[in-house]
DNA sequence: GCATAAGTGGACCAGCGGACCGTATCGTAC
DNA sequence: GTACGATACGGTCCGCTGGTCCACTTATGC
């Protein structure tokens, strides 16, 4: 059964309105009613189509997630399969950070509407598992399972936003920090307990 | 002017009821009305005394924060002043992690009621600055400012809870991971890009 | 015992996410 | 072109939230 024409039109209007609102407004000034109003649609239309606000946000990022996933799964190295393990790790971190920087508002909305939905998300599970694999390949001796979660947490959109706007760190400093977190490039003397 | 006797009694009742509720109930089932009811007090009483729910949670953790702060500022080494820089860093991490484990519910409430209040908190600023100092002393070559924030983020109560309950990591694994994050003990070959 | 300042709590508010269901529109079969 | 069943629609209602208001009670100092 194909989607009815008015339904498709409304779905598009809702997605567009939601995206615009999330970009423009502060996160907690965006509400179901405001999205509905901006899309010229009733609240119930949004609810039925997307289940809840979390579903709406999911629908917004889903295509971008799949795009990045396919680059990771079958793109060209070092982000895609093949190549040096260390290079693969760093390429992956760059891709994740860029993804967060480009989609900060949506990711923050995702974190906002589902407290642990962030980690529990199928997408996040993919990112974390992949991260753990690449950490393990590059640094076989560390606890890749824990480190993957820690690094992924450091990539949360609210954390990045906080570092940028409240701590005035520029993105390249953050990028360097994330890389160093996953794979410390320098260790001086006297660093072990 | 001294606090009126009934006011003091109510303050204590509210604090006790709030603490009990935060411990027992899931965070988003705790509401102003329920705390008030449990304390046998009107909502307005809570509001006027603590400003808002964030203030209430603040009042609950404040004494524990000051207790730990004084141990850090003037306790015995290595947590207090003096001693080896690396030992000081690790002692501090242990103290922070223990603090989070002991006060998880309150810290989660704090994070919940003020999205960035968590970091913006004067207390958090103290923890982070101190962490940056100790990281810098132990590892002068790293970006201690960034790393302090990253490690502190890894110590967020919601993150710890997630790792424990959803990822089934025991606390000692998390502890080891946090230490390694702040000061990686081992680096094999081929780890630099 | 009384004046008065301090403290109180239930009614009230605007806002939220979400559910309901009578109605309007669409796609289709004729 | 028309009639009809399925689908999608949105205004209205619900329970709940954090927070405010203000007529009332109570503890305290004299």
From TrEMBL, chains A, B:
Q: Which InterPro entries match?
A: Homeodomain-like_sf, HTH-type_TetR-like_transc_reg, HTH_TetR
Q: Does the keyword Isomerase apply?
A: no
The feature table lists the DNA-binding region at 31-50
Q: Name one Pfam family in it.
A: TetR_N
Give TM segment ranges: none
Q: Which GO terms describe its molecular function?
A: DNA-binding transcription factor activity; transcription cis-regulatory region binding
Per UniProt, the keywords (alphabetical) are: DNA-binding
Looking at the record, the residues that make up the HTH tetR-type domain are 8-68
Q: What is this protein called?
A: DNA-binding transcriptional regulator, AcrR family
Q: Which organism is it from?
A: Nonomuraea jiangxiensis
């Amino acid at each position: 059964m194909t989607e009815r024409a008015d339904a498709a039109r409304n779905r598009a209007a809702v997605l567009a309105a939601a995206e615009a609102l999330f970009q423009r407004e502060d996160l907690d000034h965006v509400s179901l009613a405001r999205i509905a109003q901006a899309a010229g649609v009733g609240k119930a239309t949004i609810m039925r189509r997307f289940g809840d606000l979390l579903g709406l946000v999911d629908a917004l990022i889903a295509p971008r997630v799949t795009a990045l996933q396919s680059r990771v799964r079958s793109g060209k190295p070092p982000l895609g399969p093949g190549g040096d393990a260390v290079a693969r790790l760093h390429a992956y971190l760059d891709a994740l950070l860029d993804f967060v920087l480009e989609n900060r508002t949506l990711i923050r909305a995702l974190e906002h509407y589902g407290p642990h939905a962030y980690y529990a998300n199928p997408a996040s599970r993919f990112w974390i598992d992949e991260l753990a694999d690449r950490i393990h390949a590059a640094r076989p001796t560390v606890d890749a399972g824990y480190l993957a979660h820690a690094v992924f947490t450091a990539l949360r959109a609210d954390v990045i936003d906080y570092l940028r706007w409240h701590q005035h760190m520029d993105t390249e400093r953050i990028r360097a920090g994330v890389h160093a977190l996953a794979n410390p490039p320098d260790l001086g003397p006297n660093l072990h307990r």
